Amino acid sequence: MTQAAEFLGEILDDSIFQIDGNAAARNFWYGVCAVIGIAAFFNFAQKVTAFSRLRSAASNRPHPASPSNFLTISLATVTAIGREASYPQFMPQNGIVANLFKIPPMGTIILLVAYLVPTATLTTLEGGVTRVCIDSKSIKKWTPGSHVLLSVPVIGILQSHPATIASIPSSHGGKLVFLLKGHKGFTGRLITAAETSPGSRPTWKARIDGPYGNTADYATFDTVLLISGSTVVDSDTDSDEITSIDEKGTKITSRPKATSASSVNSGTRSSVLPCAVFHSGRPDFHPLIGELLEKAEGETGIAVCGPLGLNSKVRDYGGQV
């Protein structure tokens, strides 16, 4: 009985969640108050407009519904634009389509689109990298190595940048995470926006086209070579996953390669994989791939995730050997 009571007490004890819960509740009620305030303002404006028109009609003024001052003209213009934009509705006239499909008015479609527009959070990381975390209500499933065309209209209204998804659906609360190295153009403006407005603008409206691409199941190959470059290494197997695979009995061979002799001599040993030494730089893949294919048994899969030049060079080497 005592153990059951203690267990029940632990379940009902929410002290660890009080801070986060209070913050979430506070933000929720702030949002509710804002919505109520906006609705009350428009309701008050509508009643004032109706009262003004009735008063003008009682005074026998011509065109009592016509706006007479700057405030009423502005209000009438805004409401007319919003109202008329929501009116159009396409309805099939004949055939089976007309009986089976009913398309909602444009106003309803606009509300649905506004609800589905993803929001992005920008965070600067070391090395001039921007971490883009997007909460999308329409994209909830993707495969490792998939990429999208990412657009942030405020930063570049007509620009879309390819980006590899560096997360999986079960991580980060189902959000899509991208790591973009800041260069010129879109990625440069992206990291500038993340650095200059971290607090004043916590979220950004984004547009996602995709996801595209699909990788083969590496379990179907006898030998697999994973090559990662730039900031997209997250889509390949990381050190923790390699350790997990090694513990399951899969044979893992780590042979880091690098171009310059200085980088080879200054390699750092991994605390996760003591047998592996990591170096920076782009290696010569021709002998690496040739040696791998010579000693491989059965089918060999080569997966490349990185810049276009890296993909092209590895593809050429694979074709040569």
Automatic annotation (TrEMBL):
Entry EC number(s): 1.16.1.9
Membrane topology field: Multi-pass membrane protein
Subcellular location: Cell membrane
Molecular function via GO: ferric-chelate reductase (NADPH) activity
Annotated TM spans: 28-45
Annotated Gene Ontology cellular component terms: plasma membrane
Region of interest: Disordered: 234-265
Biased composition (Acidic residues): 235-244
PANTHER family in the cross-refs: FERRIC/CUPRIC REDUCTASE TRANSMEMBRANE COMPONENT
UniProt family annotation: Belongs to the ferric reductase (FRE) family.
Protein name: ferric-chelate reductase (NADPH)
Organism: Monilinia fructicola
